[in-house]
Amino acid sequence: MTEIRLHLSVRDLTDADLPSCGWAGYPKHVRELVHQIRRAEAGEVDYLAVCTPAGLPVAVGGIDYTDAPIDVKLREQGRFG
Fold this sequence. Notes:
Mean pLDDT: 86
Oligomer: single chain
Number of strands: 4
Distance between the termini: 20 Å
Number of helices: 1
Radius of gyration: 14 Å
Strand content: 25-35%
């Protein structure tokens, strides 16, 4: 079996990432990511990008803190490929 190791980092998703997120879904979904970034800026969610060493997102996902007062809800996850 072949083993592939990747060096990835996790950070906040930003507006600058959006042109590289076409793989995440239809254009409507990418527009929804803009809304989630704004919600992250307001402290309502954490929306993260898993990135290559070049800084390109290969996965995104978030946690919504407003869905329940006690629990947090894993918002969604998307990945390249």
